Amino acid sequence: MSEASQTKRTARPGARPLATHWRRLNGPARLAGVDLARGLAVLGMFAAHLLPDSGPFDWGTPATWIDIVNGRSSILFATLAGVSIGLVTGGTRPLAREAMATARGRLAVRALLLWVLGLLLWATGVPVYVILPAYGILFLLALPLTALDARVLFPLAGALALVMPFIQVWLDAAPFWRTDEGRAVATVLGWHYPFPVWIAFVVAGLGLARAGLRRTRVQLIALASGAVLAVAGYGADAATGADEASEVFSFWGAVWTARPHSSGLLEVIGSGGFAIAVIAASMLVCRTVLVWVVLPLRAVGAMPLTAYTVQLLVWAWVATAVLGRPDDLTGFRDLEPFIPLTLWTIVGCSAWALLIGRGPLEWVFDRASRIVREPSAPDARAAQP
Hints:
Layout: H1 3-26, H2 32-50, H3 72-88, H4 97-122, H5 132-142, H6 150-172, H7 180-189, H8 195-211, H9 216-240, H10 244-249, H11 251-255, H12 265-285, H13 290-293, H14 295-302, H15 304-323, H16 329-334, H17 338-355, H18 360-369, H19 377-380
């Protein structure tokens, strides 16, 4: 065997992982549009955390356009949680009984890990409302719904969206939340993203997965429906929405608002529609040559938990080193961290996805969830989408 042949043969194993990781990120089994939407959600949350408050969105004032990420990025994140749950529990058709039990068990393990990780990130002192505790609870609440199909899930999501904002105002008014115990419970529950309302977004995402996000018709209908809901919610708020004083002192004012993180009826309709439209638009974009242009964003979306967590850990480390404390929000924003953190996240996720593969936290969560054993082969067969 020649030296050249030996070199060629030994080079192949080194090349295989790159090819494998490329296929994993770009293969037909992966929904590139979902990764793109996740990447946009993660970077939108970066912007909401790290950029100075620009005031309410105004088409005529470009400086306020960054307000589009406030609240909407986290709602997009929650809706995508529903999509992910739907995909791992069968796609367009729910898994068979025992396979579904395994999938639910693994999702429950991930939910617990998300909740624990969220509390650990909260303990860093970084002054953001960490979404992961709420995310874990939403995962658990969605598990009984995984046997339903899109014809049930979409009406259920609509009913929750219309009813729960009224109940949420009543829940938020309880004096308990103003006690030390109440504030501790709010942290544990991730109450800034209250699950009684936010489960509507997860159910909507689960419905999208059951409807068949790969289908062009579903993507177009979702885009149009989401746009209509967004216009209806934000339009009603612009025309008749409550002002900030009414939100505080009036039950109806607290309900009839689209203010970010209000969980008001108009926010649920408008931002929920926005999330559906972004997911559908991302799927349509990834049907074109632009799928390669947005590859770095898709890499971020392939490891959203890692990207989100590392951002907060870097924040805590830099703020402590430079400012002496991690909870100085204004001081940290004055360091203008958004662009460097965003660029390093995009570059780092792209390199990791292509050279190493699955995100580190995604890998750990997957391995941990496998303590729930798969059923025997005949029971594990699932109906394919």
